[in-house]
Amino acid sequence: MTDRQPTFLQGLSASVPIVMGYLPISFSFGVAATQAGFSAVEAFALSLFIYAGASQFLALALLGSGAPLLVSAFTLIAMNLRHVLYGPALMKQAGAAASTRYAWVWAFGLTDEVFGQALGAMARGQRFSERYMFGLGLGAYAAWLGGTAAGAYAGGGALAGYPAISASLGFMLPALFLALLLSILTRRQLPVIAVAGAVTVAVTLAVSGTAGILAGMIAGAIAGVARR
After folding, report:
1. Which among 115, 114, 116 has a CA at the least distance from the CA of 141?
2. Per-block mean pLDDT, blocks of 10 residues, the chain (228 long)
3. Which of 4, 6, 106, 223 is 20 to 30 Å apart from 78, CA to CA?
C-alpha cells in the first residue's frame, strides 16, 4: 500500500461512476413514488432516511399492495441485513491501524456500490482513509437524493406531455431487479436462485405476493447456506 492517505476530493472523484449509475435509477424511483400516491416530499424522505436502492422500490410495491407496515418493515430489514457485514469486511481489509473515529457517519453510505469501490481501491494498494470514505459516500448519496427529487418533480406532472418517456420509466423497476439477478447469476448460484424463484411463485399463487416474497427470501437464504 502507498503511504499517502487518500483525500476527500479523491473519494468524491471516485464516486463519479456510481453517480452515473445512481441518477437514472433514483430518478425512476422518484417518478414511481409519486405515481404510487406519495407526495414529492414523502418520496424524497424515503431516499433521505432509508437510502436502500432496490429496497425502496420493494417498499413501494409492498405498501402499494396494502401489505401491513410491520410485514413491509421486516421484509426490508431482511433484504438489507447484508449491509451489517460491509463495515467489518472493509475494516478487516484496512487493517487494525485504520481509524474508525467517524465510522458512525460514513458507514451510513456503505451501499453495495460504495463498498465494492472502496474494497477494490484497497485491493489495488490504496490506504484506507475516512476522508476518502466521506467523499465517496457523499457523492453517491447526493446523486441518489438529487435523482429522487428530479424524478418526484417529473412524476408530479412534468412528464405529462411525454407519454413515451413515462411509459419507459415504468420498465425501470423490473429492469433493475433483472440486472441485480443477472449480476449474481453464476453456475454455482443457479440452484439457489431456482429454489428462491420456485418458492416465491408457489407461495404467491397459494397465498399472496407479500408472503411469496418473504418465503422466497427465506428459501433462498437456506439454500445458499446449505450449498456451502
Report:
1. 114
2. 78 92 88 87 92 84 80 81 84 84 90 88 89 95 95 75 64 60 68 87 84 80 76
3. 106
- Based on the fold, state whether residues 207 and 163 are members of the same structural domain: no
In a domain, 105, yes or no: yes
Determine whether 43 is exposed, middle or buried from the number of CB atoms within 10 Å of its CB (0-12, 13-18, 19+): buried
What pLDDT is recorded for position 175?
63
For 224, the grid coordinates are 445458499
Q: Read off the DSSP letter of residue 66.
A: T
75 lies in a domain? no
* The three grid cell numbers given for residue 209, joined into one nine-digit string: 405476493
Same domain? For 144 and 190 the reply is no
Query: What pLDDT, on a 0 to 100 scale, did the predictor assign at position 129?
Result: 92
Exposure class string for 74-106: b at 16+ Cβ within 10 A, else e: ebbeebbeebeebbeebbeebeeebeeeebeeb
Domain count, the chain: 2
Domain boundary among 140, 169, 198: 169
Specify whether the CB–CB gap between 165 and 159 falls below 8 A: yes
In the chain, the amino acid numbered 107 is: A
The model's pTM? 0.75
List all residues 6 or more positions away from 216 whose beta carbon is below 8 Å from its beta carbon.
Answer: 196, 197, 199, 200, 203
Whether 197 and 122 map to the same domain: the answer is no
pLDDT of 156 reads 66
Instruction: Specify whether 99 is located in the same domain as 204.
Output: no
